[in-house]
Structure formats: C-alpha cells, structure tokens
Amino acid sequence: MDLQEVFAARYSVRKFAGKAVEPEKVQSILEAGRIAPTAKNIQPQKILVVQQPEGLQALGKTARLYNAPLALVVCADTEQSWKRPFDGMDSGQIDASIVTTYMMLEATRLGLGSVWICYFDPAVVKREFNLPDHIVPVNILALGYKADGAEPSPLHFSRKPLSETVAYEKHNW
Fold first, then answer.
1. Which among 132, 131, 44 is positioned nearest to 91, based on CA atoms?
2. Are 143 and 68 within 8 A, CB to CB?
C-alpha cells in the first residue's frame, strides 16, 4: 500500500472485533511513533500501551474504546517538551499529535483499524495510571481489527474544498 492508499483507507473505526493485535504489529506501530518528527527532535512523547482487561476497563471510565483490544495513551512530558521562546507555546501536544498520526497510519498500513480519541478526562487517566504531574495525556489511539460491519461515518467523506482552507500569499479569512 503506498502512502496515498494509506491516507484513503484510514477512517475512524468505531466497531472493533476484539481480536488481540499481534506483538510484532504493536512494535511496528510503536516504531512508527518513535521515528516521527518532534520539535528540535526532543521526543517528549510518552506512550502507555494498554492491552490488559484491567487497563482497558480503567480507560473505559473516561473514554469509549469501541471494544478495541489495544489502546495507546499518548502523553507529552512537559519537563522535556520544547517551549517557543517568544510566547512560551509548549510543543508537547503538537509533538504527541504527530507521533499519534504516524502510529495511526502505520496501523492502517498493517490492516488494522483505529480511532483517535480526545473526548476523555485527562485527570481520570492520570489517576487510574498514576501519572506524574508533568506527564500530560494528549490523546488515546484505540487500535484493533475491524469488526464485521465496521464502516466509515458519513461525515468521513465530507471534506471542504481547498479553496476554503488554503490561501496563497494573502488570506481572505
């Protein structure tokens, strides 16, 4: 599958089969995240791999996992992340999102489904997994094999034209 095919094949899966993901696929997904670019190559991401029932139940207290057998809690370490000197913007959440994107696309390439979850209470994740204050949960990537009948949401195919999202040289927003 070439990169454009991966882009086209990927959608938010909200119905997983529950079948375990093979360890070699998990490692390949994590490796994709490891090589993702980050600000100044600091690599402030911390990824919590959750695949045991107790951990998935703990995540289920704050996030809908759709029966996924594997969840990656992608965090940013605020003690390591680069801060822009002009305004203090912390790159940690951006870096964590880039890492998540790489892992999500690798999962698609491997024939797995994924859903990127931001609708969760970070305080619950921090409490359930005893995360220190400087480790900030940014998103959860639920992964697994698609269940029979899993299909993209109708919203998946709704895309604004480039003319509404791109400007050359000067904007008219």
1. 44
2. yes
Residue 119, CA distances (Å) to 38, 95, 141 in order: 24, 19, 11
Quote the domain boundaries for residue 15: 3-165
d(CA 53, CA 133): 25
Instruction: Tell me, yes or no, whether 113 lies in a domain.
Output: yes
Using CB atoms within 10 Å of the CB of residue 67, give its burial: 0 to 12 exposed, 13 to 18 middle, 19+ buried.
middle
For residue 2, give the nearest of 142, 152, 105, 143 by alpha carbon. Answer: 105
Q: Which CATH number covers residue 64?
A: 3.40.109.10
| Residue 111 covered by a domain | yes
pTM score: 0.96
Residue 171 is assigned to a structural domain of this protein: no
> Total domain count for the chain?
1
Token representation of residue 163: 């003319």
Q: pLDDT (tens digit, 0 to 9) for every residue of the chain, 173 residues total?
A: 899 999 999 999 999 998 999 999 999 999 999 999 999 999 999 999 999 999 999 999 999 999 999 999 999 999 999 999 999 999 999 999 999 999 999 999 999 999 999 999 999 999 999 999 999 999 999 999 999 999 999 999 999 999 999 999 999 88
